[in-house]
Amino acid sequence: MAINWFKYSAPSTFYGLAGKLIPFFAWPAAILFAIGLYIGFFVAPTDAVQSEAYRIIFIHVPASILSMFIYLIMAGYAALGLIFNTRLSSMMAQALAPTGALFAFISLWTGALWGKPMWGAWWVWDARLTSELILLFLYLGFIALQASIEDPRRADKAAALLAIVGSVNVPIIYFSVKWWNTLHQGATIKMSGTSMHVAMQQAMFMVLVACWLYAIAVALARVRSIILERERNTQWVSELPEVKYEDGGAK
Length: 251
Known about the structure:
The chain is mainly alpha-helical and 251 residues long. The chain has helices at 11-43, 57-84, 87-119, 127-148, 152-166, 169-179, 198-230, 235-238. Helix 2 runs antiparallel to helix 3 and helix 2 (57-84) crosses helix 5 (152-166). The longest helix is centred in the N-terminal third of the chain and has 33 residues, at 11-43. The protein is globular.
């Protein structure tokens, strides 16, 4: 029997689906985080060049990757909402922004922890570091712009324009080590292969997948809250059993 997935494009139907999906992403994320970090910090061998300091990459690299990909996904949802005037698309963009900002902050913070023993400085105005910092500011700008405009539809359009224009920064981050002479090292894992120990690869892959699952679970939880907030005056929200208020109305 075919499933009509288009019906879930409406906030009223997607709200229930999101609630059912959250545990299927949240629990595997927690398990993979635990296993991946255990392998990375206790099983993987010490690096011959960077010693124990290299282990920060098991957090830094997945966070950096997610910070870029989430921005592109957020910008894609924002563009869909702007072009086709779809409410759920704009809500998903709004739900993704805080998680993307979190990963961008973790990327910068862990990068500083790695840079101090490797470069002798917490921060340098390196091309990749600077463009990653700009990415964090773009996330914060998107969130602030959404919050500063009372009309949700106007806020969605203004934030969408910022997200779309800001997406040009993502390829700059990725290719910065190739375009400019930077202190930041290039990619360790390439299409031609990698010299990383198998335990390092396993830890990196598990934490990366865990970050993806975490991002999806948190975005689904956050979009449910956004749906309730924006649809608070609709009948279907007032009929939800989990939404009860003292005045008997919907949020």
